[in-house]
Amino acid sequence: MYKKSKNLTVFLFLLPALILFVGILVWPIIASVHHSMYVYPTFSDRGDYVGFKNYVDLFGKQYDFGKAVINALILAALSVFIQLPLALGLALMLGKGIKGERVYLSVYFMPVLISAVVIGMLWEKIYNPIYGLVVKAFEFFQWSGLPPEGLLANKKTALLAVFIPTIWQYVGYHMLLMYAGIKSVSPELREAAMLDGATDGQVNRYVIIPIIKPIIKVSIIFAITGSLKSYDLIKVFAKDAYNCSYKVPSLMLVRYAFHNQGGIASAIAVMMIVLCFGFAILINWMFKERDPYGKK
Which helix (H) or strand (E) element contains residue 290? Predict the structure, then answer.
């Protein structure tokens, strides 16, 4: 009797959180899957059932969703292989303890606190092909090779130009996560390794990094899913969500959702959910500790 009463009490305490979880996360996913099976000529129309036609059309010439996914995956790869190693290097440097450590932490983390729209407008001025800082720097050093139409308008440089502000904004975020993990490592471990003759590089490689692997895993998941869902910063640069060289799924989703194509927008949302969950599961599997003898 007491056990049943205790279970009921626990359930009642968890019920509000469960309702919020279902209402905010589970139900919208189910609704998106349902809506993706329909075509909606107008917002008020009940829609016509078309099955998986919206998903097939997404990868056709009309929508070219595959190009948007490739752009998002390129941004994700750049985040994992450029942004995160840079964040890890900064975290290892600051975690070791240097003069002015708190000041550096504040400076590196400050861009995270700035609105993405403000950052986008700032970098748009920096990239301006007439008076921007980039073009003036090229003129001052007498460099060549800068596209006359500007970095954002050139198909070869547009995606990289979008990624640079992303590095600047979020490298401090990942650095702070890793820095907190490094600071939680017992100083005795570092001292013991140094007494055994290990260099700073060897201590970082064989002691610090293996201990903070769970945090690195979280940062990788955040970087990939964040790139797949990126919108606000890119929206500032994107004058045309259909034709710009840095088109991403979120831009297409918002564009079609407000142009009476709710079925296509819902299909894009479902694909984004599948991609994010798929990569999260893949990263968790890759970081799973395995027994060298094959035992679980």
Answer: none
Q: Which of 108, 228, 227, 96 is nearest to 166 (CA)?
A: 227
Which amino acid type is present at position 148? P
For residue 67, count other CB atoms closer than 10 A to its CB.
Answer: 14
Task: Note the pLDDT of residue 43.
Answer: 61
Nearest by Cα to 130 from 146, 144, 115, 111: 146
User: Which domains, ranges and CATH numbers included, belong to the chain?
Assistant: 30-38+46-286 (1.10.3720.10)
Residue tagged 């050139």 (tokens): 154
Question: For residue 177, how many other CB atoms are within 10 A of its CB?
Answer: 18
| Collapsed DSSP state (helix, strand, coil) of residue 39 | strand
The CA R_g of the chain, rounded to the nearest whole Å, is 24
* Residue 232 pLDDT level (bands cut at 50, 70, 90): confident
- Residue 45 has what DSSP assignment? S
